[in-house]
Design a protein that fits this description.
- This protein is α+β, with helices and mostly antiparallel strands and 431 residues long.
- The protein folds into 2 domains: 2-19 and 234-429, Alpha-beta prism (UDP-n-acetylglucosamine1-carboxyvinyl-transferase, Chain); 22-231, Alpha-beta prism (UDP-n-acetylglucosamine1-carboxyvinyl-transferase, Chain).
- The protein has helices at residues 22-31, 48-59, 89-92, 100-109, 128-136, 167-177, 193-204, 236-249, 264-272, 310-317, 338-343, 374-386, 397-400, 406-412, 426-430, and strands spanning 2-7, 12-17, 39-42, 63-66, 74-77, 111-115, 140-143, 147-151, 159-161, 183-187, 208-210, 217-220, 229-231, 251-256, 276-279, 283-288, 297-298, 323-327, 347-351, 355-359, 368-370, 390-394, 416-421.
- A 4-stranded mixed sheet has the order 21-22-1-23. It has a 4-stranded mixed sheet with strand order 2-14-16-15.
- Helix 1 packs parallel to helix 2.
- The protein is globular and about 65 Å long.
- The structure holds uridine-diphosphate-N-acetylglucosamine.
- The site of uridine-diphosphate-N-acetylglucosamine has 20 residues, from helix 1, helix 5 and helix 6.
Length: 431
């Protein structure tokens, strides 16, 4: 097994380049299934979740070729996919976003059988809204303990009004609807940057999707989709994590290859803590010289403060002067990482399951902690970079689901971070 060992207290300086967006990539790759020709997807992040979804497509019959000289470019030829039944339970069960195969296969074949998806389980993650959308479009849905089965005579464009704003359900509805005859209107749609990216990708293949990035998405079904070359947007959450890491450790870092508008809610909150954030065309610069102040944060769907930045921000606020209150309004109980931060000296109280009160200490100290899921793991890194002494983070496989070359990127900024192979002891299991 491997862990990260971080000696904290080194300020970060220099430039870091942000990779393609994980949450866009894991929807765009399954979306290629809808097409009848090969597509080239560029700016793919080199992370585990992308490797898994590409592997799943391969087992389904797609031909996946990394383009020489640029491994972030992949040609995906979906023409070998002849069946709407996905059989690789182990791979599908290893990631949440494999549920996008439901919408994509339903949209292409009118049916889908997909094993139960897995991934980060920081909360109960229902799919009732995805199923509601499929049903409204005309599918029969059979939810079994180990798989979801969808069948349809003829899908038809319809009005879909979601009760809760859901990224996954919005994406799946889009995937199922792009080839369904007639007009689909998705109301209370999610507005995240990766929703817009998926719409842009679908339109590059000849789909007719309008309004992505607003509450209402309108889709006119088209008969066929054609191949295209498409470059994925930069990862908002990877960028936000580096911004927060610089604020935690101190220093002056240029975070490059970003879309600053996607980072606005994070920028605003970092400024509230006293960090300086300068915005440029495709770059933000974060400078932190003085101690930080606490602030209040409430997560909400885009353009609000992203839930996927909440753990990293609580880590930051744990070593900021004064008190902070953080309300989690998207994934209500997303605080399983708090006991890990407490081991580093954080003073955090959880109230009603959905709120934390942080009483900032001068400085966290190193400890042995676990990465309980992807963003919880990122929070441990943020905390460790600013802490005094050595932090050992186990279960780093979660971090590697979503952060490309994290050791290389942080080392280049001056962090003291190493990957160490170890044999797990009972003490590690009990952490
Ligand atoms: C996506 C992201 C995840 C992020 C989340 C919210 C991917 C692969 N993952 O997850 O990193 O944390 O958006 O920004 O893109 N809900 C229901 N029923 C459903 C679906 C969702 O009640 O059928 C609720 C959830 O319990 C949650 C809220 O809707 O409270 C938001 O979830 P959703 O936006 O669907 O998250 P994901 O798409 O799973």
């Amino acid at each position: 097994m491997d862990k990260f060992v971080i000696n904290g207290g080194h300020k970060l300086y220099g430039t870091v380049n942000i990779s393609g967006a994980k949450n866009a990539a894991v929807a765009i790759i399954p979306a290629v299934v809808l097409c009848d020709e090969p597509c080239i997807v560029e700016n793919l992040p080199k992370i585990r979740d992308v490797n898994i979804i590409l592997e799943i497509l391969k087992t389904m019959g797609a031909k996946v070729t990394r383009i020489a000289g640029d491994s972030a470019r992949v040609k995906i030829d979906p023409r070998g996919i002849k069946s709407s039944r996905v059989t690789c339970e182990r791979l599908v069960g290893d990631m949440r976003a494999s549920y996008y195969l439901l919408g994509a296969l339903l949209g292409k074949f009118g049916s889908a059988v997909v094993p139960a998806s897995g991934g980060c389980s920081f909360c109960d993650r229902p799919i009732d809204l995805h199923i509601k959308a499929f049903r409204l479009l005309g599918a029969k849905c059979n939810l079994l303990p180990d798989r979801v089965e969808l069948t349809s005579e003829n899908l038809q464009g319809r009005n879909i009004d979601f009760d809760v704003v859901s990224v996954g359900a919005t994406m799946n509805a889009m995937l199922a609807a792009v080839r369904a005859p007639g007009k689909t209107v998705i109301a209370r749609a999610a507005k995240e940057p990766h929703i817009v990216d998926l719409a842009n990708f679908l339109n590059s293949m000849g789909a007719n999707v309008r309004g992505a990035g607003t509450d209402v998405i309108k889709i006119k079904g088209v008969e066929k989709l054609h191949g295209c070359t498409y470059s994925i947007i930069p990862d908002q959450i990877e960028a936000g994590t580096y911004m927060t890491a610089v604020a935690a450790a101190g220093g002056d870092v240029k975070i490059k290859g970003v879309i600053p508008e996607h980072l606005e809610s994070i920028t605003t909150k970092l400024r509230d803590t006293g960090a300086t954030v300068e915005e440029f065309d495709e770059m933000v610069r974060v400078i932190r010289e003085e101690p930080l102040y606490g602030c209040n944060v409430k997560t909400s769907p885009h353009p609000g403060f992203p839930t996927d930045m909440q753990p990293q921000f609580v880590a930051l606020l744990s070593a900021a002067e004064g008190k902070s209150k953080v309300i989690e309004a998207v994934w209500e109980t997303r605080f399983s990482y708090v006991p890990q931060l407490r081991k580093m000296g954080a003073d955090i109280i959880i109230e009603n399951g959905n709120t934390v009160h942080v009483d900032g200490t001068d400085r966290l100290h190193g400890a042995k902690v676990r990465a309980l899921d992807l963003r919880a793991g990122a929070a441990m890194i943020v905390a460790a970079l600013g802490a005094e002494g050595t932090t050992e983070i186990s279960d780093i496989r979660y971090i590697e689901r979503g952060y490309e070359k994290v050791i290389e990127k942080l080392t280049a900024l001056g962090a003291d971070i190493r990957r160490v192979t170890y044999v797990e002891s009972q003490e590690d299991v009990d952490l």
